[in-house]
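Internal ticket #5521
Category: modeling
Description: The requester needs a full-assembly model to guide mutagenesis choices. All entity lines are attached below as received. Residue total reported by intake: 1229.
Assigned to: D.W.
Attached entities:
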Amino acid sequence: MAGKVPVRLCVNGSEYEILVEPRQTLLEVLREEIQLPGSKEGCGNGNCGACSVMMDGLASNSCLILAVQADGKEITTVEGLADGMQLHPLQQAFLEEAALQCGICTPGFLIAANSLLKKNPDPSEAEVRHHLAGNLCRCTGYDKIVRAVLKAAAAMRAESSKEEVSA
Amino acid sequence: MASNYRVIGTRPIRPDGYGKVTGKDQYGADTFLPGMLYAKVLRSPHPHAVIKRIDTSKAEAFPGVEAVCTGADFPTVTSDEAIDSGEETISARFMTALSMANHKVYYKGQPVAAVAATSPAVAAEAVGLIEVEYEPLPAVDDVLDAMKPEAPLLHGDLYTERLTGEEKRPSNIAKHIQQSRGEIEKGFAEAEVIVEREFNTQMVHQGYIEPQAATVQASPDGRLTVWTSTQGAWQIRTQMATILDMPEGRIRVIPTEIGGGFGGKFTPYVAPVAAVLSRKTGRPVKAVMKRSEVFQATGPGSGGYIRLKMGAKRDGSIVAAEAFIAYDAGAFPGSPVGAACLTGLSPYTIPHLKIDGYDVVTNHPRVKAYRAPGGTPMGMAVESVVDEIAVELGMDPIDLRLKNAVGPGDRMTNGVAYNSIGFKELLQAIKEHPHYTAPLEGEFVGRGVACGFWTNGSGTSTVHLNFNPDGTVNLIEGSTDIGGSRASMAMIAAEELGLDLSEVRPQVSDTESLGYNDGTGGSRVTYATGVAVYRACKDALNELKSRAAILLEVDEAAVTFSGGIFRAGAAKEIRIQDVIKQLGKTGGPFEARGVSGSLQRAPAFGASLADVKVDPETGKVQILRWTQFQDVGKAIHPAYVEGQLQGGAVQGIGWGLSEEYSFKDGHMLNPSFLDYRMPTALDLPMIDTHLVEVPASDGPYGVRGVGEVCIVPPPGAIANAIYRAVGVRMTELPMKPECVWRTLQTAQQEQVSETSQAG
Amino acid sequence: MKNFEFVAARSVDEAVAALAQSKGPARPIAGGTDLIVQLSEGRRTLDRVVGLDHVPELHHVSAQSDGSLHIGAATPCVSIYSDLDVRRAFPMLVDSTSIVGSVQVQSRASLGGNLCNAAPSGDCIPTLICLDATAVVVGAKGRREVRVDSFCQAPGRTVLADDEILVELRIPAPVAHEGGVYQRFIPRNEMDIAVAGAGSWVRVDPQSKVITHARIALASVGPTPLRIVEAEEALVGSEVSQEAIERAATIARDEARPISDVRGSADYRRHLVQVLVRRTLLGALQRAGIDTDRVKGGVALGG
């Protein structure tokens, strides 16, 4: 009764039209079918944030979305954060601030932090901590992650004010 | 102070970082091979049962299923040989049972069968069709209950091992460790203040975010290729060879990137299953655990019961300590109670000691190492009692510790003398730290301090260096990089060879491309692999010096090396890069090697300083400020050293406040990240660090391992801070809100009844 | 997870038809943050899942001209607590919708889903009860309205028939001098299920400082979120005072019907109810414009 169904996804700017089983999560389809394994499964029930992706502009747990629900939506994964060889300021700040150790949670944190900075370019430490509370990191104790997000935010603000001046 | 080093002590971007921030690095579950199948394991729903019958026919007939396996497909391993399992050994037969049960199950979640299918969903559906008939047995759910003579026995053939020989009667007590010094009765007779407390702690999980995963390809010639995320590729090889009864040389383990381990990723839980299924199908088989399986069927950290009595004189000198420590090993022997016996009381010069440690089996998952394995519960006990003595004596808690602190030449509880250690320097640093002296204001707030000790490991590491025609160096090591060690290894090489860090490319080898390596555990990598890198560099420089002599047209004895330049007298010099570029002209390529082993211990001391606020109405404890102190010997990459301290501190905070396995009749009630509560970013302040650098006795630069000791002191520091905030002594981990509230209620009721009696 | 058929509905009628025509068990899915976990853990097996992502009527937050609020049932939490009208006029709704799961969960989890999941711990349900919300339900037999305080019947069970879906939640317009607060107690500061939760809502006569209306509802201390009418009755007609607050909190504690489980014992939960009702009542009074520092009996605002 329940065969595969076609789904259209726009992932990191590329269009995909693929057949999925209704029970497949977006995470599984991103990793196994589209072969973008940067999004990780840490818990499979929305409690660790390692699978975070942006869907239509909002950070979401891709393990808690059926791929069929994502039909027609725009998805950004960690693989889509950098502009070609140019790292996103968050990626650069995570490297400079040693904000990762094992790195398994890093994709989810980058996505969550990116969604914060999109709506709040100048967050306080408390706001960063609140926004990242859905992402578990077991290596860093979060200290350097919070610092990296604050640093990236400052860098992005400086960049955009430069653009405004030149414009 | 100006550093003598060019690279060491700086904070460069780690060489492997780019793959991690772009999502390109391959972790355990990220192996994708053509024709790959997906395995799913059927696990026991009972904590203790005999398997009467397994019927796999329906699963085998299910569309998409390619193979099914049970214990019958595994070799029968009966040997009690101790197999290296990373940070501890385990009997061969018990290790095998962690991958697949045979006839009997000893914990809920133990594997009893598995399928390989064309998709993860089909595999998951098919295991549900396997019929297993069990005869449930009574479950042993608590260490003290397990020790009682009338307790149900897990293993009819397990006898208590002690120095005086094995017992005649089988028991759930696998081992009894005894340590003593002086005369314990005399010690307590001399004491003017005696404090005795009982402590209960629960099993906890390492909580790595990446579940265990392995992909195995079997080959018709009997060889296996294993891609897996592990702390020790060589240890996985040894264990798989034992489980599958095959020669080690026929297994190639290729370590992927690893998403955390903390001691928990040395055991091949699913790789042997994938191997058996790959042999049956000829196709690569991937097995990835779900989080609930990780909680219930991998090796958590041990919990247990501790009774501790300590006595001191009025001048603050601690004169006697007596400890009874029973640790939960889970289903098979091997709790870290030995380390608890050794590390808990060793920070203090105590003339009269008696320690009894018990390794106890229960129907819980079999424990594994977890960051300073065994150290944290005992650290909580010792540091709470020491704090209570300080309060009784009216002494500053740091002054009390300084009065009793060990120094070089003093002895651990097992009689072994310390070499270079920095405990006193650490205590002095706390005393002078602005956090320690800062006023703390407000209602229900308190500041607590606690210390911790860990012996640290060393072990064997092998490192190769080879050279590129552009003058750069490849560094080949076998130590899984779990938190930035490739960076520190490359930094050591860059320092010694006078190269820029970008000219050293580090990578982690598989088991066929490099000699033997112990695993990434016991805080050993920066120390022991660092020594191997250092020695490989010396080996390289020996040869490069002779090559430089050829290029400089001088006698080799006339050549000196410093700062990346070979010199012969004032006029002749050549950069090391230029020597490397011309290897072809001077005798051809070569490879430099370094091996380390038998290094002296480089012990580590750490401390936590915690400010907390307690909500007395709910019992909830909030961390207001935290500083983590540690003697790190020498920080190679200070940012990653700080990161180790911060991560360890927060794991200790989680252990202290919210993390525990909740069992009922052998069933874990909270096998998810929802109810197994690890701290989130919102639960914490910034974690300040203070590094003390007292050089270790052995090895270059005075490096000490830094990974483990930082998890030992946090629960004690929190408990001591809670005491100062609201006046109650916490003796249970975790100090979750309900537990703190109940302790406060009990104290209030006692106060009321005392007042009414007094009235 | 067993496979199922997925129907992406484009309208409420399509969704209802798809449910009605299913041969086996069927459920609508909005955000899916509860349902997908239930399916993947095997706690629920379905033949058909009806997707609501593309049903426009179910995704809106609309302030009405009379000051009341209509929220499409599948509207995610983030769209509710980010809405300026909600933030201004219904802060209690912000209290609840902003603590469901994490930021990532709030991007998907819907207000209607929180209600239809009917978990005893559903953080939005006490708030909807306190705000006297009405659920608009559409099914094969037509449309009906159900008050939220009688919507949940048992853990995971609601008044909805198999072919009915929750379409909209309607919250009456607030008037002056009223306010409500929802708080839950969790061991961490985020990402937990309530050990206990309490919502308190009051309307106060500004001259006499007499409480004229009150609603109190609890989470995680009964088989469904509980409305505690006895505590409400004890408040109505009383002048704002520490005694009145404490009396209501004590009644709520006694009326709670908690169980002991891995998240907390029954007696701890009862105690928490008392603490939370006291704290939320104070917060509600503040939102109603009462200076609680000057309340009779000298109450102090608890954290």
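Resolution: model delivered.
Comment from assignee: The CA atoms of residues 623 and 677 of chain B lie 16 Å apart.
Ticket closed.
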